[in-house]
Every structure is written in structure tokens, then in C-alpha cells.
Design a protein that fits this description.
The protein is α+β, with helices and mostly antiparallel strands. Helices cover 18% and strands 44% of the residues. α4 crosses α5 (380-400). The protein is rod-shaped, with a radius of gyration of 52 Å. The termini are far apart.
Length: 440
């Protein structure tokens, strides 16, 4: 009836528990210790009938309890019980009995099974009955209440358990015109609901060491076989764990010269004899140089190909008609220029080739010599091969535009017979060309 007393018991538990909760609650195997447990169920009391002695009778009712766990084995608990019986004596009176108690509770958490013991103290109220005193009687009375006992909870899940059973000795002190004492047996069975059962609360989370930094490194080249003097380009690809860590690169080779740095470099093979060579790259974490990975790229320098060089044949001095024909030819068939170390037809060279093709298609009796040249950088062998590739590129472009291949003959002079000898880019550009001449 005085439900506020239940709240007082629970508030008292809440006031004591936080101060003690500074201690960490260990985790039991499989079932973490919950922060709060609430139980409710059926309650049975084998009670004494006033005025004295054991004219025993049974009360049937219910109970509600709440536990606050501040250690794995220790909690503070509050409990409310109620029971009722009819015609408990020859006088025909009834009895409604309520208790409001709280106190410490000790548990032994053995994974699924949790036996416990508790000592509770509080108040009991009796009503709708007969309570004699030395001079009169009342129909309701209050008394202290003291219970000692224990029980067993069986965990079903991390959230639910059953209580089978809770057995307590209950002592009260209602007036009975004699010794004013009652000794009773109280048994309860019910369900338990748990709240806040989480491992992070129950015990410190295990410290997971950070994953060590790692690096993966691979590299590749733009060619496996190259001509002497040709540049070999190497590209590295580094991946780190965690992502985007700063990486320091280093490169070495047993053939040629490393130029550039970082993840992309070039190998200058000028003057390198024919043979097989290796480029080695290493990528290391800037924060931990000992954490590194290496990769290798193998390449082969080919033996220089013999250049096809026409032996000049002394010719008679050109006539005026031949000189006029030569001038007309060169006015309509200009040289095609190339980029450094390249034999790809540029857009401006493509225009020259297209104009030349139109002229040659209009003059089907004209045969052409295409001569390939390079600037002075690089070895003679390499530049002879490069000049041949430039001449072939020009010849292939003319053939794609309809000029028959049998009218076109190629020759390479490499870096020999340059049209300009100044060592600057303007001069170099003039020498990197495919030149067209009339074939006599």
C-alpha cells in the first residue's frame, strides 16, 4: 500500500552503488555481468497466525525486486512482496501482508548458473486482519521485516533468466498479545530481466595493438628490348598500410645511367654494349626506413643493326630542266620534322606528307628517295637505326595516302651530313627529319 517505500529502498541502493561502482566488474564466461537486474514472479509465504505459536497458514501473492551490480559478485537489492490469505483462524479474519526491504546481495556467477545469498531489512505491513494488544486490537499494523536467504538464477540468454527458486526466512514483529514475533518461510519463483549487460562496461576492452605499417612495391618498364642509346622509362607503384603514408624511392642499375627520381625514372643507355641488364628500385616508409620493399625490371640492349646506306654514285651535272624539276619537287614535297628520340609523325609533319602525297599522285612517273636523319646526340649506331625508323614512318604514311610502295625507297644517314651544326634546340630540330629527294 505504501508504494513509496519501494522507491525509497531502490533510491538507497542507487545512492550507495555509484560510489562503489568505481571498481571494474569482471566478465563471466559467456554472460557479462549486467548493470541492473529486475525480477518479478509468484511469492508464497508459510506464515504464523497470531496471537502465538504455529497455527500456520499460507499466503499467495507476488514479488518484485531490483538489483544494482557494482561488482561481479556484489550488488545492492530492493524487494517488494505482497500476499493474501482468507480465514486464517477460528475468528475468520483475513490477512494481507506486504514487505518493503533492501540490502546486500552476494552472487557466484558460474556462467549459466548464478547462485546467490542476501540479507534484507525493511518494513512489513499487515491489513484486513486482527492484531491484538494487551488492551485492545487493530485491523492493521506495521512491523520491522528481516529476511535471510538465497536462490538460484538460470541464465537463458544475456538478457533473460529464470529464478528457481528464491527461499528466505522472514521475521516480523506484529502485535499478537504474546511475544509479538513471527517466523515465516517465504518462497518465490519468477523471471529476471537484465539491463546494461555489455562487455565494455563489465571490464576494460582488450587493447588491440595497432596494425604495423606495411608497404607493397612493384615496378615496370616501357620496353624489354631496346636499341643502344634509347631511353628506358621505369614506373614504380607503392601501396602502404595505412593508406597514403609518405614513401621515399631509390633506384640503381647495372647498365646505363639513372635520370630523374621519385616513382618514375629513365635509364639512359647511350654507349651501353649489347646485353642484359637490371634496374632495382626500393620504396621505404619515410617514418620507418626499415619498412621497405624492392622490385626489379630486366631489360636487354640489342646489338646495333647495320644501317642501309646507299653508296653515292657520281652523277653528271644536272641540266637546267632537271634543276627546274628538282625545285618544283622540293616546293611540293617538304621535309617532315620529328620530336627528340621519336619517329612518330607529328601533326605538322602529317600536313607535309599529305601535300607530298597529293603531288606524287598527280605525277605518277616520279620515284622518291626518303632519307632519315637525327640530331647529333646519342651513338652513331642508335641514330642510324632511328633515322631508318623515321624514313619508314614517312614511307608508310605516303603509302596509306595511296602512293605505291615501289615508287618509294628509304635510306638512313643518322646523325651524319647534318643541315645544321649549332648545338641548340633550333638546330637539333632541323636535323631530326625525313627528307624527300627525286630518284634518278
Amino acid at each position: 500500500m505504501r508504494m513509496s517505500k519501494v522507491a525509497l529502498v531502490l533510491l538507497a541502493a542507487g545512492a550507495v552503488a555509484p560510489a562503489l561502482n568505481a571498481q571494474a566488474i569482471p566478465v563471466s564466461s559467456g554472460f557479462a555481468t549486467p548493470r541492473v537486474e529486475i525480477s518479478a514472479g509468484y511469492n508464497f509465504i508459510k506464515a504464523n497466525a497470531p496471537p502465538s505459536g504455529c497455527e500456520c497458514f499460507n499466503l499467495n501473492g507476488a514479488y518484485v525486486s531490483a538489483d544494482y551490480n557494482f561488482l561481479n559478485w556484489l550488488a545492492v537489492t530492493g524487494e517488494f512482496t505482497t500476499g493474501h490469505a482468507n480465514k486464517i483462524s477460528a475468528l475468520g479474519q483475513n490477512l494481507t501482508l506486504r514487505t518493503y526491504m533492501g540490502g546486500p546481495k552476494v552472487s557466484l556467477r558460474m556462467n549459466r548458473f548464478v547462485p546467490y545469498g542476501e540479507v534484507l531489512f525493511g518494513e512489513a505491513q499487515g491489513s484486513d486482519s486482527y492484531f491484538p494488544t494487551a488492551t485492545s486490537y487493530t485491523t492493521s499494523a506495521s512491523s520491522f521485516a528481516l529476511s535471510v536467504g538465497g536462490g538460484l538464477d538460470v541464465n537463458l540468454t544475456r538478457r533473460f533468466a529464470v529464478r528457481v527458486p528464491d527461499v528466505q526466512y522472514l521475521r516480523t514483529g506484529f502485535p499478537n498479545a504474546a511475544d509479538n514475533e513471527q517466523n515465516q518461510l517465504m518462497i518465490g519463483v519468477g523471471v529476471v530481466v537484465k539491463f546494461g549487460a555489455r562487455d565494455a562496461w563489465s571490464s576494460p576492452a582488450p587493447v588491440v595493438p595497432p596494425r604495423p605499417s606495411e608497404i607493397e612495391f612493384s615496378c615496370s618498364g616501357n620496353a624489354g628490348n631496346i636499341e643502344p642509346g634509347q631511353l628506358l622509362r621505369i614506373m614504380g607503384d607503392a601501396k602502404t598500410t595505412p593508406d597514403q603514408l609518405k614513401v621515399v624511392y631509390s633506384w640503381s642499375t647495372n647498365g646505363g645511367t639513372v635520370t630523374g627520381g621519385g616513382r618514375s625514372i629513365s635509364i639512359d643507355t647511350t654507349g651501353l654494349p649489347a646485353g642484359e641488364y637490371t634496374v632495382t628500385g626500393t620504396a621505404a616508409l619515410a617514418s620507418s626506413p626499415s619498412t621497405n620493399q624492392s622490385c626489379e625490371v630486366a631489360f636487354r640492349v640489342n646489338a646495333p643493326k647495320p644501317a642501309v646506306v646507299d653508296t653515292p654514285v657520281p652523277a653528271a651535272a644536272p641540266t637546267a630542266a632537271e634543276m627546274k624539276k628538282d625545285k618544283e619537287f622540293h616546293d611540293n614535297v617538304p621535309d617532315a620534322l620529328f620530336d627528340y628520340d621519336s619517329y612518330t609523325i607529328r601533326p605538322d609533319a602529317q600536313e607535309a606528307v599529305e601535300h607530298a602525297a597529293a603531288y606524287l599522285m598527280a605525277h605518277p612517273t616520279i620515284n622518291v628517295i626518303i632519307a632519315g636523319y637525327s640530331d647529333e646526340r646519342g651513338s652513331a649506331e642508335y641514330n642510324l637505326a632511328l633515322g631508318e625508323k623515321r624514313a619508314n614512318a614517312a614511307r608508310d604514311s605516303l603509302m596509306r595516302l595511296g602512293v605505291p610502295g615501289q615508287r618509294l625507297r628509304i635510306v638512313s644517314y643518322g646523325k651524319e651530313t647534318p643541315v645544321c651544326s649549332t648545338q641548340d634546340e633550333t638546330c637539333y630540330q632541323q636535323n631530326r627529319r625525313a627528307a624527300f629527294a627525286l630518284s634518278r
